[in-house]
């Protein structure tokens, strides 16, 4: 009887042990992937886009996210192989250098400093689920998981125009809504689009100016100053320390208009979008060869003016994220078509808010084609540490006298120059402008000097 009891007890123990072993689980360590110092004194960035989500398997050098500083857009790549377990920031949220971006489950040992810390709840505000983001509808097919991707600037435009972003189809990456998408939406829907109807106009007749209505804000809206706008605040504050002087002139561009018309088909065959800006930039580069003191920068102590060997000509661009001033490197070595291709590349990157740091640093001279939007004259502000900038107005068809005193119709542009009067005198600016004007009025002379 005792033996039977012992055997029964032993049998039960064996069964218990086998059950314990089948329930055993293994846990892999978690590391925090933190935002590293990306240089240029940047302490904080805005998360513009996630390329991963929780549960994704990633490898070293895989893209994790894209962040926007006040200087450039930067793509962050993984340093680990593993599985993403946590995202620490929402899209458009702010991340500081040294702060965790994601948690990654990895194999192997983990350094103590890489282990996740028990942190207080994030101070990053949650995206409010207000009436402006209703439950998904058929028109939200471009927004995965019902999330609307848009920058603060685009959201502000939508608020000001009483537009539900969930009703706008985004043309950016992963359905991101760009400024152009909102403006296009405003031009397609009737003024009472807030009712939910999205009937698109089928007529080709241009809409009347009154077809689009604007409503006043019901309350004050605080818009965070981020990204490119923050950079421009710093730059323009420094620019106010520069004593500016201005010089204006007008140029007859009949010959240039004719030449561009002759080259448009030739350019199209080579997939080149040929605007007037490549001619303006190339003419400036040729003129700068004669006046190197304008292709220059000042040092921090204002003890030297550095005449730059490369003509890295900046062009002011209006983007969904604000004003940005990238530059085209080595314009003195490029043809007009090559400059046109660079402009197209920068404009496309600007629309996606993906202009890299390398395109934003090293500029030596700036042109702003404000006439592409409107206006004739402007008062451009120097982009420090550069010493000169030009603003070009729109082409106008105006009456002018020819050499026989006959009134003719002429294509005319106005240019407004500003220079740092500490290091550039008025005579130099006038002579440079005359040379630039000569190349635009006689574009064959410009083409003759291309290498």
UniProtKB/TrEMBL annotation:
Q: Name one GO molecular function term.
A: lipoic acid binding
What Enzyme Commission number does this protein have?
2.3.1.-
Keyword Mitochondrion present in the record's keywords: the answer is yes
InterPro entries registered for this protein in UniProt: 2-oxoA_DH_lipoyl-BS, 2-oxoacid_DH_actylTfrase, 2-oxoacid_DH_E2_comp, Biotin_lipoyl, CAT-like_dom_sf, E3-bd_dom_sf, PSBD, Single_hybrid_motif
UniProt entry keywords in alphabetical sequence = Acyltransferase, Lipoyl, Mitochondrion, Transferase, Transit peptide
Chain positions covered by the region annotation Disordered: 106-147
- State the source organism's domain of life: Eukaryota
Span of domain Peripheral subunit-binding (PSBD): 149-186
List required co-factors: (R)-lipoate
Q: Any idea where the Lipoyl-binding domain is?
A: 30-105
GO cellular component terms given for this protein: cytosol; mitochondrial matrix
Which ranges are annotated Low complexity under compositional bias?
121-140
Stored Pfam families: 2-oxoacid_dh, Biotin_lipoyl, E3_binding
Q: Which reaction does it catalyse?
A: N(6)-[(R)-dihydrolipoyl]-L-lysyl-[protein] + 2-methylpropanoyl-CoA = N(6)-[(R)-S(8)-2-methylpropanoyldihydrolipoyl]-L-lysyl-[protein] + CoA
Q: Where in the cell is it found?
A: Mitochondrion matrix
Top EC class of this enzyme:
transferase
Query: What PANTHER family is this protein classified in?
Result: DIHYDROLIPOAMIDE ACETYLTRANSFERASE COMPONENT OF PYRUVATE DEHYDROGENASE COMPLEX, LIPOAMIDE ACYLTRANSFERASE COMPONENT OF BRANCHED-CHAIN ALPHA-KETO ACID DEHYDROGENASE COMPLEX, MITOCHONDRIAL
Could you say which protein family the record assigns here?
A: Belongs to the 2-oxoacid dehydrogenase family.
Q: What is this protein called?
A: Dihydrolipoamide acetyltransferase component of pyruvate dehydrogenase complex
Species name = Caenorhabditis brenneri (Nematode worm)
